[in-house]
Amino acid sequence: MTTEQKLSFFQELINCSYPLYHWEYDSSMNLLSSNWTKELFSGDFFSYIGFHKLIQKHISDGNQSPVILEAGYNLIWIAGFEFRDMQLHRCYFIGPVLSGRDSHMKIRKRLDSYELSAKLRFTIFKTFEEIPSIPNNIVTQYAVMLHYCLNHEKVVSGDVRYLNPYASDKDTAVRTDTSTHTGIWVNEQKLLKMISEGDPHYKEALQQSSSLSYGVKAEFGDPIRSHKNNSLVLLTLCSRACIEGGLSPTIAYDLNDYYAKRIEECKSLTDTTNLCSEMLEDFVARVREAKEQESVSGLIQNACEYIKNHLTEPLSIKVLAHNTGYSEYYFSHKFKKEMGCSVNDYILQNRLEQAKLLLAGTNDSIQTISDNLSFSNRSYFYTCFTRHVGISPSEYRRKNGKL
Questions:
Q1: pTM of the model
Q2: Range of the domain at 366
Q3: Based on C-alpha coordinates, what's the Rg of the chain?
Q4: 161 pLDDT more than 70
Q5: What element of type H or E holds 304?
Q6: Going by DSSP bridges, is the β-strand pair 67-70/161-163 parallel, antiparallel, or unpaired?
Q7: 192 and 154 in a common domain
Q8: What tens digit of pLDDT does each residue of 343-372 get?
């Protein structure tokens, strides 16, 4: 079968369940064909709202994975890319889709707030009424299938990217309509076990769990609020699993508080999706690190935990040795032997890691971060950060800032 035949067959299968349409673009994002006939979303709509720029950046960054694009009002499209000889040949949009069962109600309320003529308001809402609401896990599966049709290459749902031209971060859709919880608990336990073991293959279990359930079955009138709630549930479960896996409870609770705050700050569904991915990666990496230190004595583990919990306070070998009841010489020698680095280097490494979190996740000034982490002055902080991270604090914030 040719690519065109595969796509035609694929859309026929989709349309057995949902009325979706397609748009075909060349590599320069010039429209070649579409079976969408209504005025809304026609012409240069995708370029006007910023989809073309998002896709061009996605491709120029070396990505080939399919994406889900959000246009506001819980409205999304799937975008897949056909490559030939490693070069973009065609881009295909499939949609439109509404990402929550309450989306029609929200759109009606929003239209009522505008001073539109009754005829125009009716025309717009009539178009939106015909747009299907599809569960997020189904939309993601469609994106995976579209990629296979275009490139004969298998990807998993975790490879699908979520992009939003309006939000500072991301957006995704969450609602599904399952009537049973069959199999959810087993897969949830499998996922949590892998997280508690620091298993990097946890994404496979996560994919299986998400295909069975979208999370909390409650209507809040807002898909973003629902996704935040689901993210908070996942955060709580994962932090407890990490404690069982050997991560310090203090560290796990601190991370729980940190990510809970960031979840609440998310402004779109894509925000929460990408934040959850980052959160899981962080938890699993920390559990692996904790397990690698199982051979470290309790005395040194306690010292490490004390350091991580007091990064904003003055720290020294004298203070740490005093807490353990040993001499400074014995403590520093034992620490370096078991940890592979000096006490001062370990303190610096952890302060820089904390600085990275603060640079990316807060609006605190660099001077404030330097002072709070007990660096002697801003210049010294800049020098240490640049030497160990490879870029300056300001450059790191520019590249990784979440706010």
A1: 0.49
A2: 298-400
A3: 25
A4: yes
A5: helix 298-309
A6: parallel
A7: no
A8: 999 999 999 999 998 898 888 899 999 999
